[in-house]
Hints:
This protein has about 425 residues and is α+β, with helices and mostly antiparallel strands. About 40% of the residues lie in helices and about 20% in strands. The protein has helices at about 15-30, 45-50, 55-60, 80-85, 130-150, 160-170, 175-185, 190-200, 205-215, 220-230, 235-255, 300, 315-325, 350-360, 375-385, 395-400, 420-430; strands at about 35, 45, 65, 70-75, 95-105, 120-125, 155-160, 215-220, 260-265, 275-280, 290-295, 310-315, 340-345, 365-370, 390-395, 400-405, 410-415. The protein has a nine-stranded mixed β-sheet with strand order 1-5-6-12-11-10-7-9-8. The protein has a five-stranded mixed β-sheet with strand order 14-13-15-16-17, sandwiched between helices. It has a three-stranded antiparallel β-sheet with strand order 2-4-3. Helix 6 (about 160-170) packs antiparallel against helix 11 (about 235-255) and helix 8 (about 190-200) packs antiparallel against helix 9 (about 205-215). It is elongated, with a radius of gyration of 27 Å.
Amino acid sequence: MFKTVxxxxxxxxxxxxxxxxxxxxxxxxxxxxxxxEIITPVLETYDLLAAKTSEEIRERMYxxxxxxxxxxxxxxxxxxxxxxxxASKLRNEPKPMRLFSAGSLYRYDEPQYGRFREFWxxxxxxxxxxxxxxxxxxxxxxxxLLTKLGLKNFRFKVGHTGILKGILDQEGLDEAKQDxxxxxxxxxxxxxxxxxxxxxxxxxxxxxxxxxxxxxRSENAFKVLENVKDTVQDYGxxxxxxENLWKILELTRDSGAQLDVIVEAGxxxxxxxxxxxxxESYIPGLDIALGGxxxxxxxxxxxxxxxxxxxxxxxxxxxxxxxxxxxxxPPKTLKERSVVVISVKDExxxxxxxxxxxxxSSGLPVEVAVMGRSISRAMTDANRRxxxxxxxxxxxxxxxxxxxxxxxxxxxxxxxPISSLTEEILTDSx
Length: 430
């Protein structure tokens, strides 16, 4: 018997419905914020996807040569594909440009809770503004999404890649060494990160500053930023990064958005292209990020485009579903309004199909009993599958332009005029 490839999953109806619900809410929110949807290929050239991602992700991409001998890879994240599009076909579009995308991604990670080799994300990218209000928008949008989905007690972990970069640039570390430090910080290996910095020849003052930063995290965002600013006072670019993060969080707060924020000075994310704010959303007790993002002002230029500032976030659809399940949210389903239409006799089947179309046109999910079963067996099957209402179409009732409507949950049934059937179901299911 064939099985799925390791790390891949079959999503059964209830799982697929949960996933599609999160995706749909993400898509609806994108429209409310003015983001336009794009669709990019699952398969891209290896060079594009490898250009500015981390070494760890490069090693975990699904890569192969196609029949033309070209090295290609399945996308491990969206941003490189979107950046390619912005640098080419969308390069002359007016700014700001807000883009939304959703779909599957692929990484050869070790399968574990919340981590799959095929996974889904909803992606929001804002191009053209380097101002803090653009960063604040991405934070607020993420907060709105998780709130609309009904998630409780979620938090934001926030940092700024310019703090670490400002320090290490001034100490003379090249990009490769800085990437090594970032990768270790992303894995919370603070001592190892300090060792890399020490072996790279940074000053004793730098080591003391880094050690202090790695230990600095607090829910009192502005208090911790004051402390961080004092700590990095000898590094001008790092001070500017702290001030930028302060402004972003201040704007977010003053806009009325209620974000539960923890500022973590030693926070880093694995992707190499971040240049400003970085953040992740999570819920305590679930040791995976629900989503994450940040500012990347130099990526478009890397792909041959004009320098365009940008900020974005990837929402982990699979992980948000897991968080909702952990908080025992009932799966989003249309079952509470679902209808089965059962024809008593073959001669009334055409009318059953007609009534099904009528109900569907009002937004009700309707299926027709097509197995030729007896009424009792058709009702048993509908009850087993959780259908909310049964409409029984019989020749006798049709002569009076009526049908039998049964509430499957209450076990009650009544004969009603066909003209009021839709209204009866819609009113009763509210």
